[in-house]
Design a protein that fits this description.
Elements: H1 15-27, H2 34-47, E1 52-56, H3 59-69, E2 77-81, H4 87-94, E3 98-102, H5 113-119, E4 124-127, H6 139-149, E5 152-156, E6 164-165, E7 168-169, E8 176-180, E9 193-197, H7 200-209, H8 231-241, H9 244-261, E10 274-275, E11 281-284, H10 289-300, H11 325-333, E12 334-337, H12 345-361
Parallel strand pairs: 2-3, 2-4, 4-5, 5-8
Antiparallel strand pairs: 1-9, 6-7, 6-10, 8-9, 11-12
Length: 363
């Protein structure tokens, strides 16, 4: 059995991406241009039922600009999970609005509609679930809740390229959705984000906000940002978009292998009607999660990730009092195993052997 280290994540960059970047370099047109436009059209068509798609320079920019384009600002509240990367709440705060932290449901680690309902006030503008680890949030329940209270629904789909629920792709539920293209995501553009929307006014606002507030040069309509994607990044993204379906199938096959063979730890559940794309394969280790992770690395050369050890409401940047028991439990027990498409059969067997041995030993 090989002793080569198995990392928790591994970006897949090959000759096709290099050739695509070289073609842009040879063209001499490096900033936002025809590659970005083509990437936007292809991404929308392939992943979100043809919704309009706007490319930006990062996923965080995508959330921030999406919220601004949807009219979120000072005095508003947006309900978000605390169990997520800080960018979710940061984007709300950057608009001048207040992120309100709700609990997650324990099966899929996504926003709990019952907890959301308890957080709604007269200041609530919208609800922003995170499709965490590549599993869709409970969008039917959240959609009903939003309609009952006259609220908007936004989607943080940073980790969920190609996920769906009852045949509807993630990204096609809310006023807007953001997909991250960071290197460790299921597909990458090197860095970047995509914002998808079915609202023509939101789309126009997004295009203005990302480009200094202008659609035509020097005709600035509002105060905007420089959040454009370059053609270099779009060229990488277009290449990856053509392969992400196969990579997702490989992730799902690895997840099925782990589901069948792991023992002594909690394996991820999949909701009825959900397509999970396994950005992370996240187990639960009820006793000494950190020691378990350390032993996997020390004894078996297997990397893991803890996403996320400190809930947002306990970060110094927010520091809120909140009773979120499922969030606190998840933060103490989740552990993400390698599930990236570059794993081979030997890697998968080694991961299973290591996890089962440590679980049996009580490590």
């Amino acid at each position: 059995m090989s002793n080569e280290f198995i990392p928790a994540a591994r970006p897949l960059i090959g000759d096709a991406e290099r050739d695509a970047v070289d073609a842009v370099l040879r063209s001499g047109m490096l900033a936002q241009g025809s590659e970005v436009a083509a990437f936007e059209e292809e991404f929308g068509r392939v992943l979100v039922d043809g919704r309009a798609t706007v490319a930006v320079n990062s996923g965080t920019s995508g959330l921030h600009l999406g919220l601004l384009a949807a009219g979120v600002g000072p005095g508003d509240e947006v309900i978000v999970p605390s169990f997520t990367f800080a960018a979710t709440a940061n984007a709300v705060a950057l608009t001048g609005a207040t992120p309100v932290f709700a609990d997650i449901e324990p099966a899929h680690h996504c926003l709990d509609p019952d907890s959301v309902a308890a957080m709604i006030t007269e200041r609530t503008k919208g609800i922003m679930p995170v499709h965490l680890y590549g599993h869709p949030a409970d969008m039917p329940a959240l959609t009903r809740l939003a309609r009952e209270h006259g609220l908007a629904l936004y989607e943080d789909a940073a980790q969920a390229h190609g996920a769906s629920l009852h045949g509807t792709p993630v990204g096609a539920f809310g006023t807007f959705a953001m997909f991250s293209l960071y290197p460790t995501k299921n597909m990458t553009s090197g860095e970047g984000g995509m914002v998808c929307t079915g609202d023509a006014e939101v789309e126009r606002a997004l295009r203005l906000l990302r480009n200094q507030g202008m659609q035509r040069q020097y005709e600035n309509e509002l105060v905007g940002f420089n959040a454009r994607m370059t053609d270099l990044h779009a060229a990488i993204g277009r290449t990856q978009l053509g392969r992400v379906g196969d990579w997702t199938a490989t992730r799902q096959a690895t997840a099925r292998f782990f589901d069948r063979n792991l023992d002594g730890v909690g394996t991820p559940a999949v909701a009825d009607g959900a397509v999970h794309v396994y950005h992370q394969y996240t187990i639960t280790v009820p006793d000494d999660r950190d020691g378990f992770a350390a032993a996997l690395k020390r004894e078996y050369d297997i990397g893991t990730g803890v996403y996320y050890p400190i809930p947002n409401h306990r970060l110094p940047s927010f520091a809120r009092e909140a009773d979120l028991p499922n969030t606190e439990r998840a933060a103490a027990t989740v552990l993400s195993l390698p599930v990236h498409p570059s794993l081979d059969d030997e890697d998968r067997e080694r991961i299973v052997t290591a996890v089962n041995t440590l679980a049996k030993a009580g490590a």
